[in-house]
Design goal:
The structure holds two protein chains of two kinds. Chain A is mainly α. Chain A contains 14 helices and two strands. The chains are: A mainly alpha, B alpha/beta.
Chain lengths: 296, 432
């Protein structure tokens, strides 16, 4: 029996070791060197790269940006997704069409979304042009480079892209709530809002908590959209740079591979800690009963 | 499962892994090329020409060389410029480096030399005469030559003669005051005065490099290359010059999200479509602009003038910022690869190269084919220059150069001060 397990899971484990564990270990290894990427690393600097990260104002800045994106994603998308899901769970006309329209942006690749929005949001792009044509010329702005606007532009694009995924999750969650509960409440004289607040939302809780978890992890690792629209240099000045952008800017662009690797390790640790804390304190109730074997 | 089948299965898995590993190794050997017993040699050659006359030129050059040396086969691989560095680095480190590849010298070349990844080139006197001492100096470390130059890239401002005429600018600006005057006149005819692709950082940084070239003495710049300390006040002065120039808003709207060379919306595209009057660039620019015009032909009214003089600077007002394009050989490249490099700097070959890339060849004899007006101006300025300084991000190496570029972008965005450039650059030298 044990042998079959080894044979059947062996290839997967090998792949996992080769493409996940090995690179992580390698990054940890490079993080101890000052290394510019040519030849093998030889200049051992111990924990120096990590000390530099702690005092690097640019890293503190991207950490702040990443945190802001994380919180804003939750605050903007969460209520919006729940609201839309409640709406689309009703029997309204054109419901399936609206569901598809909301979900479409999620299906489009990030590269295409980034390229399209970056073209439309240029100062002489389609968005400003449209504003001018419909008599809202005073709203024209430098959506991408103005540091006061850029982060909100990014949040707009992120919300537009990922809200569909959240709505689909919430809809699935709503499907699993038995109709009998709200019917019984209705008979007892509860209003629509009372039913949503006292029955639907609490029962939707596990779904919301799982969505929030995915959103947090996604925010911590955000890279492609920012890289495509702002690039590694302008993202910093526009206020949209993230940890992953800074890692690539230091590693691939600046050639500080040791330092970049150390940033990757820090990013990994932050994600790991956040994930563990979230599972321990937020998802604990939801996960109870999920593990059926071996739990005492 | 019985013990025997278990053992057999284990052996099979082990064999599979061994095969996979040795298979990879086999591929590596095949890719690195090299000679074989019958004298036939296959070389790999990495360059960055986009489809067009440049790419056609390399095909023709390789065909010509193969005709002269029937035992040699050269496989060309064209790699997009911005992707080249990363790909090359991976190839060099994994032992599957191309035999011949594009080399721009400076700190990156030094890193390759230190890692023992490229060959010293033993050139004959003829080769040295063909390539010219000045260009070879850019590829020399401690008196040893590690790259074969093919063109020089004096940097200056490309401009549209038609737009200048429309705006009533009689002669190209020679001082900063005249440049600002030209900016105002171009604005008056509703054209963006100067295009810059700040999204890519380096095109914006080149403005800083040129101010530094005018503010800093040659000595101060070379000293910085050795110590990587930017303590001379001229570095901050150059930043202040740039900051006050940015204040007159000479650059196009939204320059921070404009890329340099990709598409009609890029800075080169704006010149190609007469949306902007000027662009500061090295002399690959006419080729890029040509590929972005509506009919993909060179821009007929393109002109060139050197970076204007800055009053009170320590640098020589006629000095030129510039780079080189050339080729290096990886450590394992067979001797035939050197033959191809020697072939590239022969006069006939250089003439063809110059025509295909609209650039200035290193071979003095071949420079007679330079007839495009902008190249004639650039060549004259280059020959008059008391010294030429390599692009600073190349000169000072990747990590310092990159930090400098990033801080210049900050200054462009109005977020950093002139003093930050020197400060950030000093800090970058500490990171590994």
């Amino acid at each position: 029996m044990r042998f079959e397990i080894a044979v059947l899971s062996g290839p997967a484990i090998l792949m996992f070791l080769a493409f996940v564990i090995f690179p992580v270990a390698l990054a940890a290894f490079y993080g101890f060197y000052r290394w510019h990427g040519y030849g093998a690393p030889t200049d051992w600097v111990g924990l120096n790269n990590y000390k530099l990260i702690l005092t690097d104002p640019a890293f503190q800045q991207v950490l702040w940006h990443t945190g802001l994106i994380l919180v804003l994603s939750l605050v903007i998308q969460g209520p919006l997704a729940v609201g839309l899901a409640l709406l689309l769970n009703q029997k309204i006309r054109g419901r399936s069409v609206i569901r598809i329209l909301i979900f479409v942006p999620y299906v489009i690749s990030e590269v295409i979304v980034g390229t399209a929005w970056s073209l439309m949001l240029q100062t002489n792009g389609a968005v400003n042009d449209l504003l001018g044509h419909v008599g809202l010329g005073f709203l024209k702005a430098d959506w991408l480079s103005d540091p006061k606007l850029a982060l909100w532009t990014l949040m707009g694009i992120i919300s537009w892209k990922y809200i569909g995924f959240a709505v689909i999750l919430m809809l699935a969650g709503l499907q699993s709530i038995p109709d009998e509960l709200s019917e019984a409440a209705q008979i007892d004289g509860a209003s629509y809002w009372q039913i949503q607040r006292r029955i639907t939302l609490p029962l939707l809780g596990p779904t919301i908590r799982i969505w929030a978890f995915l959103s947090i992890i996604g925010s911590l690792q955000l890279f492609d959209l920012v890289y495509i629209i702002w690039g590694p240099y302008v993202a910093g000045t526009a206020g949209t740079s993230t940890m992953a952008i800074y890692m690539v800017a230091q590693g691939r662009n600046a050639g500080n591979y040791g330092y970049g690797s150390a940033i990757a390790v820090v990013m990994f640790l932050i994600s790991l800690v956040v994930a563990l804390i979230y599972q321990r304190f937020v998802l604990r109730r939801d996960l109870q009963g999920a593990v059926t074997e071996g739990a005492s | 499962m019985s013990r025997n089948t278990r053992r057999a299965a284990a052996a099979a898995i082990a064999l599979g892994i061994a095969l996979a590993v040795s298979g990879c190794a086999g591929d590596g050997d095949a890719a690195s090329g090299g000679g074989s017993s019958d004298g036939k040699v296959t070389l790999t050659f990495w360059e960055n020409a986009q489809p067009g006359p440049g790419a056609e030129h390399w095909k023709a050059a390789v065909a010509e060389y193969q005709k002269l040396h029937p035992n040699v086969t050269i496989n060309i691989q064209a790699i997009q410029n911005e992707d080249l560095d990363g790909k090359l680095q991976t190839a060099l480190n994994s032992g599957s480096a191309p035999d011949i590849f594009l080399q721009r010298g400076g700190g990156k070349m030094q890193a390759m030399v230190q890692a023992g990844q490229i060959q010293e080139l033993h050139l004959t006197d003829t080769d040295k005469a063909n390539a010219g001492a000045a260009a070879l100096a850019g590829y020399s470390i401690d008196g040893k030559i590690y790259g074969m130059p093919v063109d020089t890239q004096p940097e200056g401002i490309y401009y549209s003669k038609d737009l200048f005429k429309q705006a009533g600018i009689a002669t190209p600006p020679t001082t900063m005051a005249e440049l600002q005057d030209a900016v105002a006149k171009l604005k008056a005819i509703n054209v963006e005065p100067i295009a810059v692709g700040a999204k890519d950082a380096w095109p914006a940084a080149h403005w800083y490099y040129n101010f530094a070239l005018r503010e800093c003495s040659q000595d101060a710049m070379n000293k910085a290359a050795q110590t990587l300390k930017f303590t001379d006040p001229c570095w901050t002065k150059a930043g202040e010059d740039l900051a006050s120039f940015i204040k007159v808003e000479p650059f196009q709207k939204g320059f921070l999200t404009t890329s340099a060379q990709q598409g009609a919306g890029s800075s080169a595209g704006m010149i190609a479509n007469h949306k902007a009057g000027m662009e500061l660039m090295g002399n690959w620019d006419p080729g890029v602009i040509g590929s972005l015009t509506a009919d993909q032909k060179p821009l007929p009214d393109l002109g060139w003038f050197p970076f204007p003089a800055v009053p009170g600077g320590q640098g020589d007002p006629a000095a030129i910022m510039g780079g080189l394009d050339g080729f290096s050989l990886s450590k394992k490249a067979p001797k035939e690869a050197l033959g191809f490099l020697q072939f590239l700097v022969t006069s006939e070959e250089q003439k063809a190269y110059s025509k295909a890339f609209f650039t200035i060849p290193v071979n003095k004899e071949a420079q007679s084919v330079v007839t495009d007006d902008y190249n004639v101006s650039a060549l004259q300025a280059f020959n008059k220059a008391p010294y030429s300084m390599m692009f600073l991000d190349t000169l000072y190496g990747q990590n310092v150069g990159n930090a400098m570029n990033t801080s210049v972008v900050n200054l462009f965005a109005g977020k950093g001060s002139a003093a930050d450039i020197a400060k950030d650059t000093n800090a970058a030298a500490a990171k590994g």
